[in-house]
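Input (Leucine-rich repeat-containing G-protein coupled receptor 4-like):
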Amino acid sequence: MWLALAAIIYLEVFSLSSHVRGSVVRTTTESQPWNVSCPRTYIKPCECTARWDDFLYRQVKTVTCSGPINATNFMLPNTTESLRLEDVAGLEPVMFEGAAEVMVFQVKGLTSDSVPADILRGMGNLRFFSLSFNLDLMSLPDRFFGNLRNLERIDISETGLRVLSVDTFANLTALRFLDLSRNNIGNLQDGVFDDLSTLSFLDLHENNISSLPSVGHLPGLSELHLQQNSITTISPSALDRLHSLTKLDLSRNVIQTIPTGTLRQLKRLSFLDVGYNPIVAVGGDTFEGPTNLTDLGLDDHQLDTWNPEVLLNMTSLRYLHIGYVRYDWNQVMYEGGRWWFSCPPDACVFGDCNIAHHQPNCTCRQGFSGDACDTPIGQDEGLPTWVVVVSVTVTVVVMVVTVFGCDRFWRNRKLRYENV
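Output:
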């Protein structure tokens, strides 16, 4: 009886908490009506709502349009805070004369290889601009961003962008985040990022960059992604003025050597990945600059061919990344002309682990499967083991507390009746 009562109470509490939690979510993230005269495209009316914005982290007045636009009849409400355009054509600067309050502007599916030079002219309050997923886009006009001194974030990823002019990002003194990944950008011009004094994140991975000249003077840059390019050479002074850099990813390029002094000025660097590059040898002074380096990414070939003293002399190192596996440096040993590793504690959750070619291999125990032996056979793969364990534990605790609480209640009540 007590177990049945506990189960009922638990289910009621769970249902109530879910209802309350769902109510909170609905009142903060669900779109709300915004009663304005909403513009339209050639195909259909736009949608005007007050909806949640992940960048501003609040409800904003948003206009969402899809399809070709008639510039002469497009009237944007002058209180618009977020503008989202998809599969658009016919963009003209005159369309956005009422955009002084727009803080978020996103364009996807652009059906031309360029954008009008003055399209952002009236958006002095703009903080986030996105041109991602426009595969036909090949270039941006010079000084395209004008003097948008409030702009904090730019996403121009996954386009056909090939060239960045030296004035593309001029005067963007508030920019903190710049994503230029998955484009066709070739070599970078000297000074292209020089005006970005507040930039902290720069992503250039998956482009066609073949050489790395000086990145420029970026005093606030902490994270730089250059992986999966075609970089063969690095200028010894390429990174000299990145004094705040803490994370640098150069993996999966075709770099053959790291020139002496390349990392010397990176005193704050804590994460460096140079794996999957044909770097056959490094000197003893290659890593002398980053004295705070805690994470180093290599590949099997580098580990087997480099002078082991280069790694053994890195006193700040805590983790060695080989492929997608992170090893605790305290559990790595060089003996008998080879490296020895201990399996990471989470490599094989319900299985036996052995190391082959610097990678953990798992032999799962009966009833479990998966790369890490953490999925019970027959269990929905979308439900992780830890979720099941936590759910069962919480259920048991709630039932036990409820049973003992109810038992104590009835005992006290019985005593009161007996004392009357």
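The chain is about 20% helix and 20% strand.
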